[in-house]
């Protein structure tokens, strides 16, 4: 038997193993593949991550989660969700660019003082949608209230 024919299965298995290793190194589910997370906005480093915040009424009307350079805000009535990412500028207030319900361009303006996050949401035209509203730091978020 030709010695080259005996090496073919071994070569094929080696190529498959190499491809499997290379696929595991790139971007995939759960990350960018770069190992870099968004930087923390100024003042956020002193907060636990994720940092949970809720309204002072009962914690069920407006809730915010600040995690790294990302901000999520949920409101009970009307029920909508803002999701945005810090713009990377050390301005006052901090700005998070995003959208409400993945539809309407919205900017969140955030002031951090201790564990209190003061929030203002503005639509693309600059009209205030919510706030300014102080949200206290909390250990857990209760379910949102209904309308």
Main sheet attributes: strand count, strand direction, barrel closure: 8 strands, antiparallel, barrel
Using only C-alpha atoms, the radius of gyration works out to 23 Å
Mean pLDDT: 81
User: What is the topology, as strand order, of the major beta sheet?
Assistant: 1-2-3-4-5-6-7-8
Count all strands and give the number: 8
Number of helix segments? 1
Report the structural category: alpha+beta
Task: Describe this entry's structure for a reader.
With 147 residues, the protein is an alpha+beta fold. It has a domain at 44-138. Helix content is 16%, strand content 40%. It has an eight-stranded antiparallel β-barrel with strand order 1-2-3-4-5-6-7-8. Strand 5 and strand 6 (104-113) form a beta hairpin.
Secondary-structure map:
Layout: H1 3-25, E1 51-54, E2 62-67, E3 70-75, E4 80-86, E5 94-100, E6 104-113, E7 116-123, E8 128-138
Please name the defining characteristics of this protein.
single chain, 147 residues, alpha+beta, 1 helix, globular
Short overview:
The chain is 16% helix and 40% strand. With 147 residues, the chain is of the alpha+beta class. Residues 13-32 have low confidence and may be disordered.
